[in-house]
Amino acid sequence: MKAAIVGASGYSGEELVRLLLRHPQAELSAVTSRQCAGQTVGRVFPRFAHDALAKTLRFTEPHMELLAKTAEVVFLALPHGVAAEFAGPLLHLGCQVIDLSADFRLKSPARYKEFYGHDHPAPELLEKSVYGLPEIYRAEIKAASLIAAPGCYPTSILLPVLPLLKAGLIKSTGIIANALSGVTGAGRKVEQDFLFAECNESARPYGIPKHRHLSEMEEQLSAAAGEPVVLQFSPHLIPVNRGMLATLYLAPARHFENESQMAALQEQIARCYQAAYSAEPFVRLLEETALPDTKNVAGANVIEIGWRLDPRTGRLIVMSALDNLTKGASGQAVQCMNVLRGFPETAGLC
Amino acid sequence: MKAAIVGASGYSGEELVRLLLRHPQAELSAVTSRQCAGQTVGRVFPRFAHDALAKTLRFTEPHMELLAKTAEVVFLALPHGVAAEFAGPLLHLGCQVIDLSADFRLKSPARYKEFYGHDHPAPELLEKSVYGLPEIYRAEIKAASLIAAPGCYPTSILLPVLPLLKAGLIKSTGIIANALSGVTGAGRKVEQDFLFAECNESARPYGIPKHRHLSEMEEQLSAAAGEPVVLQFSPHLIPVNRGMLATLYLAPARHFENESQMAALQEQIARCYQAAYSAEPFVRLLEETALPDTKNVAGANVIEIGWRLDPRTGRLIVMSALDNLTKGASGQAVQCMNVLRGFPETAGLC
Amino acid sequence: MKAAIVGASGYSGEELVRLLLRHPQAELSAVTSRQCAGQTVGRVFPRFAHDALAKTLRFTEPHMELLAKTAEVVFLALPHGVAAEFAGPLLHLGCQVIDLSADFRLKSPARYKEFYGHDHPAPELLEKSVYGLPEIYRAEIKAASLIAAPGCYPTSILLPVLPLLKAGLIKSTGIIANALSGVTGAGRKVEQDFLFAECNESARPYGIPKHRHLSEMEEQLSAAAGEPVVLQFSPHLIPVNRGMLATLYLAPARHFENESQMAALQEQIARCYQAAYSAEPFVRLLEETALPDTKNVAGANVIEIGWRLDPRTGRLIVMSALDNLTKGASGQAVQCMNVLRGFPETAGLC
Amino acid sequence: MKAAIVGASGYSGEELVRLLLRHPQAELSAVTSRQCAGQTVGRVFPRFAHDALAKTLRFTEPHMELLAKTAEVVFLALPHGVAAEFAGPLLHLGCQVIDLSADFRLKSPARYKEFYGHDHPAPELLEKSVYGLPEIYRAEIKAASLIAAPGCYPTSILLPVLPLLKAGLIKSTGIIANALSGVTGAGRKVEQDFLFAECNESARPYGIPKHRHLSEMEEQLSAAAGEPVVLQFSPHLIPVNRGMLATLYLAPARHFENESQMAALQEQIARCYQAAYSAEPFVRLLEETALPDTKNVAGANVIEIGWRLDPRTGRLIVMSALDNLTKGASGQAVQCMNVLRGFPETAGLC
Predict the structure, then answer these.
(1) Which one of B228, C264, C327, D144 is at 20 to 30 Å from C71 when CA atoms are compared?
(2) B152 catalytic residue (yes or no)
């Protein structure tokens, strides 16, 4: 199976290259980037220079017909807004498209307009697209032609929350997500804010209180809850290359007032997570004394989930860690491709 | 005025040395450390080696009588539990004591026992001690002989919350504090968890849900609210040397339901903070578009406070940044000394 | 083929675990560590917790007979001096031993004593052992039972220098190696010098001028030169987790005095490196405009080599980068195992 | 005394602001930056926001006449080539000019053209300008109107080497300088190479073998040696914000062949350094067991110098550490101002 990457010069694109170069079933057949056109993959990304394919495969200008001839699956690792221009034509030419941008993650064009400030450029595709979270939408992904793979924030928040919400174990109100992102989460943006000396020895919130990714998170949470969910979401930038840590504040649906009620609830939560994820190859439920740590998931397509009930406040604290470029972007996209094409879901990801 | 530091070989001790070496009114007259006894300050801390006093002043073993003869003010930069052994004797010998540990920050011995697991070793001193947050207890500090300077977590959380709570602008229930600490916050502990390669490229929660410092934070919050406050507090470790970032989730006392109510509340909050802190030399209230960043307070005895009302959730998000070793420890202790001794409060701190 | 790791709780041991868990021909059958005995690999190293074997394989106390029963190849990831106690007995019991310590890297017991300060505990094994640099000693490794895999400093220096020396292109005198090491190079040593806040924002030389690893480097350089070589070697610690960068100052055997002589020499050097390494899977010769960068080799069993002739000084500057834990330790050891056991040399390493 | 900074928005400019805001004799009267014009200093650099002057002083467009009216001393913190356009007019208008760029550091216009690729724009000023290394040119600085303050690489290399060269203790041939720079050394350049994720976990050489700053270093070394000196200089980038570490390989003028000769030479070197620097407030000669570390000089206008004779190679290894923004740029410029204006040399720098 041949796969192409459009916009492969950013961090997500580079991570896709890394994963596809070693994928047993997929062959990387084309990579595009206007600024790198003409150069080999090994030249642009020296870390792959020892790979035989990377030595010869050259970046090209993006060209729809050529892409469609070269590849059955096309990954779009493009900025928001640009991806939408590629998806329609590529689908029309018969490709399966896995988009890493936010362009096709919402179902509601109105919500899109509210959060992105303009009409959706291809609203007819919103219906068609499938939210690329395999742990939740595996069946739909199998049958999809357009997959909108969610990014690091939604993945780190939705995977821990959705099972609890569906099981009715937590309230759908008052959910708070405090999240920390490594700097590659901002993409390979050449802006002063992301210079080494501006990020090193710095920790800072940003995009508070209305970050764009709230739109997709709330859409997914609402679908799970069966009622509109409003999320409090606070992203922060911390000085790590790769990593995302989410700390989630949740209210159990029923108060627990003594130790035995607490123990019962703990049991329910543990069972809920077990039921949802014990068979999932990429979800790591932490045992009692462990807490997540981004360094344990760096480079892996894994999300770590740990949790604590607090008898003093009655709250449930759930914490998750993932690599923002792998399970939070490109690893997830490859996982979607594996599901879509009937490959073993872990192919190229272990 | 002569000042001594007991336990000066840790990070807080080193920061005290830095601040006292350049203090215009205080003279560093003794530093103690069992492991460094006999060596000069300039030898133990090469960064001070060009200082004339650091070249000659030598670490000694801690010795109560000598300390009392040498210094009028004694700083205790000792681990929890050890400080309590020094405070009483030094007070008895006529010293004024500024303790950087948690030993004298609580008023309630029962609460101490609940959080620290054993009886307080000197409960009679708990009553006497003053909580060393000058912005809140300036008058009491002036008259104190034993000051318990709060650390980085309490400072980063209490300073933003107390004025709102006292003014009745926020509810006393449901307060959540999500905090990120630089690694020096753990002290100069030689443990595997704090090795470079265990912290670099790592972000991780710890001490969840019942961290010991909750005890003093809740005591202070309760005093301000006039009723018991239970706090949700989640500390995290991030790979910066110095820095603390707190993100606080608060519920306004009254719901705002439209833009004009929101504007009115914004006005109230702004006025409340202005009233509390506009004359404070070490509290920096951020203007509308700015958010706190630890790199802006590194090495400074300053706390940055920024905030946002979220019309979607009705919550107030307050964010603060400080240097865990300066305003979060030793700078604060020196500020207390300045207040105590009638020096200009900013002496040696600007 | 079954492999065991003795002393698997350090950084080299952990990297061996990572590489062997995914090795197609080798099966990790035992891991020992006194302090971790009884715990599973997945517990001690959470990053491997999703691996099926890591979930069940438990650390044990080191026990010679058991090891020999369990494994055909035993890796020793032990501190200097301790490895020597294990090698003899394991060899006697029929194991093949790959030692990552410095214990068996020298041929000369006298030289060992000079640099390590005591008699070698098993001098009879020095003769038997093979220096585990496959690019240089591939044939010998195939036939070995005891392999002393060199560490990061020797690898980063010897691979770039040996071919030039053998070809007579550089003088054997005046060689200078200035090297920078990531902090994992010091091992998982719980010492103050390696705490996060002592290494972050720090760059420092150490072990100057007579570092122990000089002994093996000089032995290898001397063998290649056919005469005694004395090396100037300056190690430095820099704040990266994994990475080593060596900058080598070499004198061409013949002066070049004009552009055409320089071009001729460039051609000779390029050919020399091509002849030595163009078929080597783990040596990446950089093209003209590129220079090595540790981030390009992180996690890979690769050494990058770049070079420049300086017409102003007449010197040849050769620079190399590798990951101190992979090509500089455990990757190299696995490469040795592959050679030893007749596996494809890149098995488990690409 | 009033001082202005032209081009104050970069890292050197920001460091000048920091130092001048707290200077007891100088008052910062103007700061210019095209991109920041109209904003207050406190807004552009939040870390100074608590400073009274920073709250009101606004960046302006650079305007010669206004600068000359506002300030007696003007600092130029501009890119190479731009500074030269400002120096002449400002001198003509009666200002004293301290330039932090490389524009006026050379005496020879021919050498300038060789290294910078074009004719010097104001060759008549080259004669007039004084090299702003107070430890070497104090007398000349006192009488200067145009001072060319050297940057981090020259300072870290010249201060350790010049006294030895002048004393004839080392050969003027074969000098090698291997230097590591923190990322602020590159200025606040918004380029991909300096993004956080490109620098973090990276160590890399660059500009090898002919870096532009060689020109000024060789000019100074040659002047000290009384004959042309050719320097081998290898700069590297490492992931620290502030810091420079130079490791220098030098050949003693006379071979030492036994321990007593070595002891004699050690004595001579120690005396030479003592004579040159024991009275210098900003040069810290390290005692025998210590080696320099960038973390010991961060934020200080100090250079640490340590050294070792190597009996095995006969070489002298000298190592130095400084903060590339302080003693390596803006601190040095302020030190020059102090000398120039007859202030205590340490004013505002301790």
Answers:
(1) C327
(2) yes
